[in-house]
Design brief:
CATH class: Alpha Beta
Pfam families: 5-FTHF_cyc-lig (PF01812)
Enzyme class: ligase
Radius of gyration: 15 Å
Helix content: 25-40%
Order of helices and strands: HHEHEEEEEEEEHEEE
Family: Belongs to the 5-formyltetrahydrofolate cyclo-ligase family.
CATH architecture: 3-Layer(aba) Sandwich
Largest sheet: 8 strands, mixed
Bound molecules: ligand FFO, adenosine-5'-triphosphate
Strand content: 15-25%
Binding site for ATP: 7-11, 132-140
Shape: globular
CATH topology: Rossmann fold
CATH superfamily: NagB/RpiA/CoA transferase-like
Keywords: ATP-binding, Ligase, Magnesium, Metal-binding, Nucleotide-binding
Length: 190
């Protein structure tokens, strides 16, 4: 399966816009993400929150993970199980061991699998209906579908405001975001 051209074109445009973000903007967003993300997690009563190990031009997530852990919320990172398989999540707190996986992504080792009730999700492009574009491997669609079958979860997309599009074409298997946190606003999708 390959993407419809429009989805691939939107992804390329979204990533090009993200690549233009300056250092000060990136630092400010990382701080905002940590504060707003941890406040939301606490207000929501989250027990286990997952984030991701930032790669490419993704905003730094360590400050968020540190703040969540300081609030007593268990923190987890995704672990890839192979192509076309949902991600698993393993407990990880800042300072715990990591091993390098594909694409330079660091993953927890020897930590128990957990099922997060709050997920901070990497986003290439998004719209206000909660449609999400990732890097195109379909990992999070499969992952969110699997978790939603099991329990109620909240998915918060993390993106710069510049990564917003009026409408992203949705496929039947696309799993929607509940919220998107940008460097400018907190968006309730739907
Ligand atoms: N930081 C982070 N971690 C994450 C994700 C993510 O989007 N960001 N994922 C979200 O699902 C999963 C990994 N998904 C990824 C999918 C593709 C590529 C990637 O770099 N792809 C190449 C092209 C693919 C290829 O090698 O043929 C590329 O974009 O250059 C990276 C991560 C799990 N962990
Ligand atoms: N639940 C599913 N069942 C079958 N195929 C799926 C499912 N979810 C995703 N896919 C496949 O994954 C491919 C990529 O999907 P999509 O473009 O939505 O990924 P993405 O959300 O951008 O990537 P990622 O979640 O890894 O960041 C699709 O072309 C589709 O074939």
């Amino acid at each position: 399966m390959t993407d419809a051209p429009s989805k691939a074109a939107l992804r390329a445009e979204a990533l090009a816009r993200r690549a233009q973000v300056t250092e000060p903007q990136a630092r400010a967003f990382a701080a905002r993400l940590a504060e707003t993300g941890a406040d939301f997690a606490a207000a929501h009563g989250a027990k286990i929150a997952s984030a991701f190990w930032a790669i490419k031009d993704e905003v730094a997530t360590l400050p968020l993970l540190e703040r969540l852990a300081a609030r007593g919320i268990a923190t987890a990172l995704p672990v890839m199980q192979g192509f076309r398989k949902p991600l698993e999540f393993r407990l990880w707190a800042p300072g715990s061991p990591l091993a390098e996986a594909k694409w330079g992504i660091m993953e927890p080792v020897l930590a128990p699998e957990v099922f997060p009730d709050l997920l901070f999700v990497p986003v290439a492009g998004f719209d206000r209906a909660g449609n999400r574009l990732g890097y195109g491997a379909g990992f999070y669609d499969r992952t969110l579908a699997r978790l939603r079958q099991r329990q109620e979860i909240v998915a918060v997309g993390i993106a710069y405001a510049a990564q917003e599009f009026a409408a992203i074409p949705a496929e039947p298997y696309d799993e929607k975001l509940d919220y998107v946190l940008t460097d400018r606003e907190w968006i309730t999708c739907g």
